[in-house]
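Project outcomes to date are best conveyed with an example. Our students and postdoctoral researchers have been running inverse folding experiments weekly, and each run begins with a structure described purely in tokens. The record below, which covers 460 residues, was selected by the lab manager from last quarter's runs and is presented without edits.
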């Protein structure tokens, strides 16, 4: 059974008992089927009702009925709800005209109220019963899955995102350290949701949790109980690493935490698909830095060891572009080696590629932009937006199948310098400037000449 199906089964069972009582409140017999029309009708009652107890019962019944639907019916229900509970456009037009005729605060407030779609109040009321928040997070998973085939759900997704941004505000989040004594149900979720470097069972998880030079922290929300929202894995080291394999090796030499000078954030994973684009990863890193500094004052360097998931796709597009400003004939000849199987095991191929890949990667991060002017790499956008500095690029940092497919093995270090985080964030947010170390800036050239120069060291 898939993760999504397991979650829905859980939610359905959780709400089934309380929903039966809700049926009595709203006049439904136990045998009454809850089809789409019935659920939409109950949703309408939920929006127009004023009673608190009956409202909770209605919300429970709608959530339980929704969880029991098959996937195509859930998608259809969401589309119909999105259209049915939109804003009252006539009322909005009247309030807009009233405001334009005589702009003042009172009329602005009425305009704002008229502009809010009924969908948002519907979502708020569905959140009232116990378990409602988790059920809504799962509902948004369904919206995200169905949006590609029905654009009508985009407006409903915007409403969820708007409300989740407030409900999952940093002030509500709780940071917890996860260790080998953490309850098994939470550890299972960590294994299942690790998105960067897969965890192959409890033995491997133990190697990431139990040694004294390893840490794992997660954010939780009181309304979601033992469901982690996002988690970060940390290695305590005495230097900045350039490859992931030594950090995860079963036979690695452990380091006494008191001797560590560097904290390496080597994996950050969102555990709730329904909270995609709800930003709290930046708070997680900054709070973990503070926790580690309190525990281990000797730590001086806080750095990531990150993938570059967009690099191979970008480079392949540049190779296909005969007018690429980043590639010349020499670079193209070297890059042809990437098409050969097992190139990382061939010393000559690695030597040739080492002359072109790091400069191209530096240009990718600093100069390449999407059509809307954004930094292309999603991981880079995340860390640069948090105020980190692009510190170092490493060849052959991740030789796993995923690492080679996404980035031809390249890995990146982003440095979190506590004295400059806010300054770096402002430079990126306001000017789109990528703050990078001097060696990386020297490597990057927004012209084909970059490919002609030997690769310089990218170490800070």
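After processing, the design step wrote out the following sequence:
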């Amino acid at each position: 059974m898939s993760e999504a199906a397991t979650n829905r089964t859980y939610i359905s069972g959780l709400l089934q008992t309380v929903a039966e009582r809700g049926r009595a409140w709203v006049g439904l017999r136990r045998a009454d089927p809850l089809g789409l029309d019935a659920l939409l009708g109950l949703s309408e009652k939920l929006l127009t009702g004023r009673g608190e107890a009956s409202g909770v019962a209605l919300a429970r019944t709608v959530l339980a009925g929704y969880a029991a639907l098959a996937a195509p019916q859930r998608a259809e229900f969401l589309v119909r709800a999105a259209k049915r509970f939109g804003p009252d456009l006539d009322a909005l037009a009247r309030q807009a005209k009233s405001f334009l005729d005589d702009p003042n605060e009172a009329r602005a407030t009425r305009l704002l109220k008229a502009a809010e779609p009924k969908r948002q109040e519907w979502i708020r009321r569905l959140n009232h019963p116990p378990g409602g928040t988790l059920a809504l997070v799962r509902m948004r998973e369904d919206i995200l899955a169905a949006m590609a085939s029905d654009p009508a759900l985009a407006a409903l997704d915007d409403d969820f995102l708007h409300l989740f941004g407030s409900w999952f505000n940093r002030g509500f989040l709780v940071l917890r350290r996860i260790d080998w004594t953490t309850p098994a149900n939470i550890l299972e979720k960590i294994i299942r949701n690790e998105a960067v470097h897969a965890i192959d069972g409890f033995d491997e998880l133990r190697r990431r949790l139990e040694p004294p030079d390893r840490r794992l922290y997660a954010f939780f929300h009181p309304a979601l109980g033992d469901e982690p929202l996002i988690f970060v894995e940390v290695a305590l080291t005495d230097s900045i690493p350039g490859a992931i394999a030594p950090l995860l090796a079963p036979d690695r030499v452990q380091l006494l935490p008191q001797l560590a000078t560097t904290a390496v954030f080597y994996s950050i994973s969102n555990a709730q698909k329904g909270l995609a684009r709800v930003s709290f990863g930046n708070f997680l890193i900054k709070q973990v830095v503070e926790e580690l500094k309190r525990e281990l004052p000797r730590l001086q360097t806080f750095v990531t060891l990150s993938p570059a998931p967009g690099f191979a796709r970008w480079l392949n597009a540049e190779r296909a572009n005969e007018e690429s400003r980043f590639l010349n004939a020499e670079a193209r000849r070297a890059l042809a080696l990437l098409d050969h199987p097992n190139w990382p095991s061939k010393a000559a191929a690695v030597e040739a590629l080492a002359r072109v890949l790091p400069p191209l990667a530096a240009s990718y991060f600093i100069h390449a932009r999407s059509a809307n002017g954004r930094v292309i790499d999603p991981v880079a956008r995340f860390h640069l937006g948090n105020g980190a500095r692009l510190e170092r690029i490493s060849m052959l940092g991740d030789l796993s199948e995923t690492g080679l497919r996404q980035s031809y093995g390249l890995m990146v270090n982003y440095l979190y310098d506590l004295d400059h985080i806010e300054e770096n964030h402002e430079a990126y947010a306001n000017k789109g400037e990528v703050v990078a170390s001097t060696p990386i800036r020297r490597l990057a050239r927004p012209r084909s000449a970059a490919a002609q120069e030997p690769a310089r060291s990218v170490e800070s």
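The domain at 171-304 is CATH 3.40.630.180 (Aminopeptidase). The chain is about 50% helix and 10% strand. The training component of this project remains on track.
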